[in-house]
Amino acid sequence: MSGAEVTTSAGLLVDALGRIHEEVHSVVDGLSVRHSVRRLDPEANTVAWLVWHLARVQDDHLAKAAGTEQVWTAQGWVKRFGLPFPPEAHGYGQNAADVAAVRVDPLDLLTGYHDAVHEESVKYVRGLSNADFDRVVDTRWDPPVTLGVRIVSVISDGLQHVGQAAVIRGIVERLDAEAGRS
Description:
Blueprint: H1 9-28, H2 33-36, H3 47-66, H4 71-74, H5 77-81, H6 96-101, H7 108-126, E1 136-138, E2 145-146, H8 147-178
Antiparallel strand pairs: 1-2
């Protein structure tokens, strides 16, 4: 992204979305399927679930704000993943068994889906003006949520989850290395 683009509100948000995108690839690229589903304890999230969840939340929230169909269904990702959840599931409120059900093989499905979500997100956010960010997109909260707040929330959620995934990856790979496994 050029320096001129990041001087706009939309440009800054696109830059932040790009950081999530880069980190998703950093966490998933070269990861084994076995490590992607390894849990630090029986209730813990996995790398696979965290990356799927952060992409699903971004897809769900920004598609609703844009008034478009989610990439998950529009581009057939729901069928490719074949998860035992309804198409609208995005991870919120899921339990330990649901987390365990997110097994993705090959892992490039995770990065492919996130790439598609990222592309649509960037296209949408790039087209926004400063005035657009004040539009209320969710009245279920007090105060109601504006588009700007929703996008920042999605970015915050994505950065937190990709950071968690990176920590989990590092721990499970180190534990296996110490045990002489790869």
